[in-house]
Amino acid sequence: LNARSYLHVDDVDWASWEGAPSVEGVDVVRAAIAAVSQHHTLSDVLQAAVAYGGDTDSVAAIALGISSVSGEHLQDLPENLHDGLERSPFGYDYLVDLDRRLMCWASQQVN
């Protein structure tokens, strides 16, 4: 299946975005979907999310979350982006464990 074919709903092309998204959820999600659908590497998705301007942290978080598990995006983020994360109770180790648990839960929902 081509995910892009599902991105045109109610005369809105969810695969395209221009300019800075507002903090409104629909804008943020549309910008994230556009970044994901227009790029094939995590680094390009991240650069697109930041280049839009506006609520970049939300757009990047959603877009990278989708891209990192899609299987269609090259996992090419440099080591220093995650090596430099803090090691506090809710830092790197917490996020790695949370990711593991979410992926386990998601695989059980599919099966």
Could you spell the SSE succession in H and E letters?
A: EEHHHHH
Shape: globular
- Provide the gyration radius in Å: 15 Å
Strand order of the largest sheet: 1-2
Summary, kept brief:
This protein is mostly helical and about 110 residues long.
Describe the secondary-structure layout.
Elements: E1 8-9, E2 12-13, H1 25-38, H2 42-52, H3 56-70, H4 79-83, H5 92-110
Antiparallel strand pairs: 1-2
Helix pairs in contact: 1-2, 1-3, 2-3
Overview of the molecule:
This protein has 111 residues and is mostly helical. Helix 1 runs antiparallel to helix 2, helix 1 crosses helix 3 and helix 2 packs antiparallel against helix 3. Strand 1 and strand 2 form a beta hairpin. The model has no long low-confidence stretch (mean pLDDT 85). A two-stranded antiparallel ribbon has the order 1-2. It contains 5 helices and 2 strands, in the order E-E-H-H-H-H-H. 23% of the residues are buried.
